[in-house]
Amino acid sequence: MAEVTLPFGKEKMKVTIPDNRLNGILVSKAHEFQADKPEEEIVKDALAHPIHSKRLRELAKGKDNIVLIASDHTRPVPSKVIMPGVLEEIKAGNPNAKITILIATGFHRPTTREELIYKFGEDIVDREDITFAVHKSHENADMVELGTLPSGGKLKINKIAAEADLLISEGFIEPHFFAGFSGGRKSVLPGVSSAATVMANHCSEFIASEYARTGVLEGNPIHRDMIYAAEQAKLAFIINVVLDENKKVIRAYAGDFNEAHREGCRFVDQMSGVDAIPSDIVISTNGGYPLDQNIYQSVKGMTAAEASCNPGGVIIMVSSCIDGHGGQSLYDTFASGGDKNVIMQRFLDTPRDKTIPDQWEAQILCRVLMHHKVIMVTQAPKQLVNDMQMDYAESVDEAIRMADAYLGKADSKITVIPDGVSVIVRRK
């Protein structure tokens, strides 16, 4: 028997699989890239040697209103590690600068004070020289218009970001299931953009593009919009990190929002790229907390399994989902009981300017469900999972038994992806 450890919420779950059934385990090569110094030093070194940019301390000179876009509670960005070095750089350039940390919630719910403390630490949250603001994408009064996206949608971003003398951002780079990679330009779009702008960028036409896939930037129409948004917002400097399986910093990239990000993406592509091992059953996760808080986010881990699951096969998604579905319209789309082919066609027939909230996530989930049965091992209520046209299991062992019954055989090969959001699964 092979024992595999799967992240589940803030805990770990150990699963045993018969040797004769285990087809392979897909993991990133993060363990091959060990950090040679403490996390804080990695960040400070990157800040001291920016890519295609002056040092942040030079950029901060004469800039009194500095805005830092920071990731929200759904991202494992180690702000406690990143922020001290960033603040030190800013203060070295302008000790009297007014600093606002704008939380990039994108289309997510607002981040709570408790979540801010968990991310930044109480010392930073309570500093008198820092103001925290939480982006709310539906508050039109908070937005300003900066032009038209290549997609044709209006670019509206948070006025706090738009009115900054110097706009910078933190983030982390990992594979992203339709933007190619996270980080960099994503801090602006969707990070601090209006709901209408996000929906134009996440339209069904773009989501359906063969280039809107994990690890793909070239030709990706969603990425193209995001680059334009960052340029128009005058995003001047980023500090992005790469994390290992324990959410520890192993690399950091600072400097020009596009050039530094692309260099980080090249490293992540090298680290995370794996060849698919096709199987009838694929087990995946969403990397544990905070990325597996809901079904909405867990669609990401499903797409990694999708890339390695045989047509008609079963995806077993191990994801805590302690917050439930994570998107009412996502839930409603499938709880209506409609045929998945009809649901998909409705998405494809929806014009760019008529995109509805969470349509993109529903479209990708629908794509997965059209070709695979999905069984969820989760803390979300069984009825909720069933309502969304998926099956519920109490444990991975039960899910495998259910998959065997569905497939009509008890010896199907199994591929395991311990962290579905950390890998770029390439079909041969």
UniProtKB/TrEMBL annotation:
Pfam families recorded: Lar_N (PF09861), LarA_C (PF21113)
GO molecular function, one term: lactate racemase activity
Domain LarA-like N-terminal as annotated: residue spans: 8-215
Regions annotated as coiled coil: none
Domain of life (superkingdom): Bacteria
Domain Lactate racemase C-terminal: 274-425
UniProt cross-references to InterPro entries, sorted A to Z: LarA-like, LarA-like_C, LarA-like_N, LarA_C, Ni_dep_LarA
Spans through the membrane: none
NCBIfam families: Ni_dep_LarA
Protein name: Lactate racemization operon protein LarA
Organism: Eubacterium ramulus
